[in-house]
Every structure is written in structure tokens, then in C-alpha cells.
Amino acid sequence: MDTALRAIAEPRRRDILRLILSRELAAGEIAAHFDVTRPAISQHLAVLKAAGLVVERRQGTRRFYRGRPEGLAELRAFLEEFWDEHLWLLKRAAEAEERRLRDGDA
């Protein structure tokens, strides 16, 4: 989980991930979408792959990448749990404020 969070902390990696979530693209096709060198994109892809967020398929000398739904599902579950807990705390704080206002008016 920590590896995945560190991987998506970099904005360009999030952009790459969005690009290949629903389709497979060759490394060169991915690089064509960005104003950085191909080696830089390769490094980003390696980080995403190591985090389990993308899969790589080799065909001859070409490498193809696509988002890995399983890796994203684990990350999503963690974030939803985090979000649900904070929404609960916010709800509790709002209810306490409502009681305070109501009791202060009485």
C-alpha cells in the first residue's frame, strides 16, 4: 500500500495511470503524450509497475502497459475506508455543533 501511495504521489504518474486505465499502450505511445524524455517515462512506468498499479506485456522489442485493476482496487478500498472514517468524524462534529446551537437557543 505504501508503495502504491508513493507511486501516485507524483502527478505525472497519475496522468500516465489515467492514460492507460482502460487501454493498453506501448511505452512510446505513452511518452508521446508528455513533454519529457522516453527514459523519464520508462522510469515512471517502472515505479507504477513495482507498485502493482500497471502490468507490462512484451512483444518483441516493444513494451505495452495498461492499468492493473487489482492494484487499483486495493488502493481504492484503503482510500474509501479513510474517507468513510473522516466523513463519520465530520458528521459527528456537525451534530455536536447543531446540538450546541440548539441548546444555546433554548
List the helices and strands and how they pair.
Layout (H helix, E strand, L loop, with lengths): L1 H7 L2 H9 L5 E2 H5 L6 H13 L3 E6 L2 E6 L1 H37 L1
Antiparallel strand pairs: 1-3, 2-3
Please describe what this structure looks like:
The protein is an alpha+beta fold and 106 residues long. It has a single domain, classed as Winged helix-like DNA-binding domain superfamily/Winged helix DNA-binding domain (Arc Repressor Mutant, subunit A, Orthogonal Bundle). 67% of the residues lie in helices and 13% in strands. The protein contains five helices and three strands, in the order H-H-E-H-H-E-E-H. The chain has a three-stranded antiparallel β-sheet. Strand 2 and strand 3 form a beta hairpin. The radius of gyration is 21 Å and the shape is elongated.
Quick take:
The protein is of the alpha+beta class and 106 residues long. The protein is 67% helix and 13% strand. Strand 2 and strand 3 form a beta hairpin.
